[in-house]
Amino acid sequence: MGRLFTNMGWLLGGRGINAVLSLVYLALATRTLGLEGFGNFAIIVALGQTVSGLASFQTWQFIVRWGAGSGPDDKKAATEATGFAIALDLLSIALGTVLAAVLCFTAQYWLPLSTDLLWVAFGYCIVSLLALRSTPIGLLRLRFDYKRATTAEATQPIVRTACAVLAAVFMPTVAGFVLAWAIAEVCVAGALWFAAARRERIDLSRISLRNVPRSHPDAWGFVWSTNLTESLNISAKHVLLLLVGAIGGEAFAGGFRVAAQLGQALVQLAQTISKAIYPELVHAKDDAVRIAQRMAYIALGGGIFAVVLALIFGRLIIETIAGEPLGGVYWTMVIIAIAGAIELVGASLQSLLVSAGRAGTALIARAIPMALGFALLDVAMGWQGLKGAAFTMLGSSALAVIGFWIAILSLQSIKITVERPAGKDAPEPSPDPR
């Protein structure tokens, strides 16, 4: 547990820097572009993040899962896993380019995006694909080098803030701010690849889609289930924003982006906990359940505290950063914060399922509530506008976490832990062979 909290400390420190600087560039973008201009900017960024999220694979999980060998096999396992991950990244770029072309050049028919911004959106999508960085992150996490990873990732908010200042002064347009975001993506990807290459030798001759599946027959099943699970996580945020813009227009998209960026700080915290805990669960094996349960209890307390802060200070923060006209998204932000608190509790539960080889179960538990939320989005927005969209997020998150918990209780190892015989001399339960 000591190493887990140390790693979480580095990750949360990086998130802290990002959170503080994100307030700066959010204020610059909203006040410079205005609500509708910021809405167009938010739609373009969401398109880029949707394309990279849907097309990319969670290669860091593959490296952590298959890159840890023992003794002399350790380096070989890491090399094979890295080669497999890079091959998947190249596949992601190819598939993502096609997806970007389809989404961007049909956007004028379903999004409130002007024709002159279509090439800007397509360019940002391509940059997002070329800046994929899950593989170097996986190499650093494989060696538990969270310090080096956090230092490299800090490049993004620092460069983004500096470029946002330059955009506000010299190019105060939607294209100017998109360019600022694109430069930051390239810089952080370069920093992470440089850090990973210093920590672990990257053998480009081992790039292959065959080596790892040859040694691990379940590899492709794990690849597709984790990819689809992350695609659903992307949908919960970026695709939802695109749909809000498609239904309500660019002003709605801008308002929802402001509320989500502030309220979803908790979701980012949940992702941080998940990323820190997954390698520990893979290595812990028999202690995985105990670690996941403890983290869920800690997350519950942290989530409640953060929601209280959102209730008390949320309106002041929104009006200070984005201006009084956006004060109306206060309750939307609070609802999204509650959804984030629920995700915070569910992060360790989802990681436990994935580390136990139940990524497909986690996918189903996430997919059904997500589909239900999207189906009800139009009705919810007609009922309560932006708050209705936030309620679909809240309901989807709650149902997904309930699904994770039910799935965990169905595992024999969890039942044994819960139903362990009382008494001082009670024998230790045998781990579930699954």
UniProtKB/TrEMBL annotation:
Query: Where's it found, cell-wise?
Result: Cell membrane
Q: Where are the transmembrane segments?
A: 12-29, 41-63, 84-111, 117-142, 177-196, 295-318, 330-356, 363-383, 389-411
Q: Does the keyword Hydrolase apply?
A: no
Which domain of life, per UniProt? Bacteria
Q: How does the record say this protein sits in the membrane? A: Multi-pass membrane protein
Cite the InterPro entries for this sequence: Poly_Biosynth_Transport, Polysacc_synth
Q: Which keywords annotate this record?
A: Cell membrane, Membrane, Transmembrane, Transmembrane helix
Kindly provide the name given to this protein in its UniProt entry. Lipopolysaccharide biosynthesis protein
Q: Which organism is it from?
A: Erythrobacter ani
